[in-house]
Write a structure and sequence with these properties.
mainly alpha; two-stranded antiparallel sheet
């Protein structure tokens, strides 16, 4: 009974002990199968997700200089990553070359002084006291 592999689409004969085999034995197809399984497991199993996160934390604590050494050993990777990040940033900004979209222009919108903060009426808040705070401007726009 031949089946078609879900990865490479080639025909294969499933192993007699694996009733629902959908992938052939090619190593690339098996890697694809495992990646799909892991993605589903991470999405649906909180214990597995927590265990994977803990294993990654432990690995990072044992290999603190891994990425520093990697970048030193592979400068082409560093440059390609910088170029790709610049492109992602450019696309995120919509092509504009602006470093900060919310930079105030001209005068500061807030002046130093005392302000009264009054909570908006919300039935979930039990205490509706007002707060008096002092706000000081630390720096001004250039």
């Amino acid at each position: 009974m031949e089946r078609s592999c879900l990865c490479c689409k080639k025909k294969f004969n499933p192993h007699h002990a694996v009733r629902h085999q959908r992938y052939c034995s090619d190593p690339e197809c098996q890697r694809s199968r495992k990646r799909k399984w892991q993605k589903e497991k991470l999405a649906n199993d909180s214990d597995y997700r927590a265990n994977q996160a803990e294993a990654q934390r432990q690995w990072r604590s044992r290999n603190k200089d891994y990425w520093k050494q990697y970048r030193t050993n592979y400068p082409a990777y560093v440059e390609a990553n910088r170029t790709a990040q610049r492109e992602r940033n450019r696309r995120r900004r919509g092509g504009a070359e602006i470093a900060k979209m919310d930079e105030p222009t001209g005068k500061s919108l807030i002046r130093s002084g005392r302000y009264r903060l009054i909570p908006v009426c919300n039935p979930e808040i039990a205490k509706m006291d007002e707060l008096i705070v002092e706000i000081g401007v630390i720096s001004t726009a250039l």
